[in-house]
Specification:
Layout lengths: L6 H18 L11 H14 L13 H15 L9
Helix pairs in contact: 1-2, 1-3, 2-3
Protein name: DUF5062 family protein
Organism: Thalassotalea piscium
Pfam family, one: DUF5062
Length: 86
Amino acid sequence: MKKLKNESALLKKAIIVGEKYALNRGYKGFTATNAAKEKIEVIYRLLVQDKLVHPLPESEENLLNMKHKLALWIAKQLPSDHELLK
């Protein structure tokens, strides 16, 4: 797994966009007290369910790989000239 440039910033952006996506899909489980790791797992599983990202093999399904998948997902959604992709 090759680390992306600005991966932490991409992950933050993915969480923000992913939360909005989940709420638009009807997910009501996010609260102000949710930890980031809970949000990451919920967003990842929702994107897999909606077939927007390929699922990780069960043996590789951990928080680090989920974070990487979300960063890859948002990197593909952003325009090529976005500041996080430079």
